[in-house]
Specification:
Largest sheet: none
Radius of gyration: 19 Å
Low-confidence stretches: 101-111
């Protein structure tokens, strides 16, 4: 693979990673409520899902999802249902907290992070990324463009996956650190209720958008 191809792929993958999406929304929700380590567990889940998407694309399974309307619809609606569930749960928490007036009224106190199993945050990161068929479709479109030489197709493919996942880890790792630096603000009860409400709406919107997604010929 030529260096020019690698640089081009990195630029395209970087634009894809930094564009608004469910991963960034999940980080913005997790860090204020569960802490920096839980956010990094989310990122580790994203990276794992990238390798899953890459492996499926290399094995050709993702091609079946694209060519089979039924298979693609199943994956698409599972992903949409998961995003919708996360959004509905966040909205419910925000509404319940407001209704029961669980507001931190002490003059100088702030809400503390809720203890959460790291495995749960990791799985949430995996599912958020793995149930998005657009990632596999990106690999299916990218691999033929950037890989040359049949003898090294698998190695080259996983190199692209590694670069994509590394960009993802750097970008969202930096986001975790940035959000955690705003801990004093983000851990205030009123801010968390607002954040959960906005997160819920955004995730539901992403779910609806994914459910209505169609492959253009």
């Amino acid at each position: 693979m030529a260096w020019a191809d690698i640089v081009t792929f990195v630029l395209i993958a970087s634009l894809l990673v930094i564009s608004p999406g469910p991963n960034g929304v999940l980080i913005a929700k997790t860090v204020p409520t569960s802490g920096r380590v839980a956010g990094l567990a989310n990122v580790a889940g994203f990276v794992t899902a990238f390798y899953l998407h890459g492996a499926l694309s290399i094995l050709g399974i993702s091609l079946i999802l694209v060519q089979s309307a039924m298979a693609f619809a199943v994956v698409k609606y599972l992903g949409a249902a998961y995003l919708f569930w996360i959004g509905a749960k966040a909205l419910y928490t925000a509404i319940r907290t407001t209704a029961t007036k669980q507001i931190d009224t002490a003059p100088h106190s702030t809400a503390t992070c809720k203890k959460r199993p790291l495995l749960s945050a990791y799985i949430e990161g995996v599912l958020t990324n793995a149930l998005n068929p657009k990632v596999s479709m990106f690999y299916l479109a990218a691999f033929p463009q950037f890989i040359t030489g049949a003898n090294r197709s698998v190695t080259s493919s996983f190199l692209l996956v590694f670069l994509h996942s590394a960009i993802n880890a750097v970008w969202f790792g930096a986001m975790v650190l940035l959000v955690s630096q705003l801990a004093t603000l983000t851990r205030k009860g009123a801010f968390q209720r607002w954040l959960k409400g906005v997160t819920g709406v955004v995730f539901i919107w992403f779910g609806i958008k994914l459910a209505s997604y169609r492959i253009t010929p």
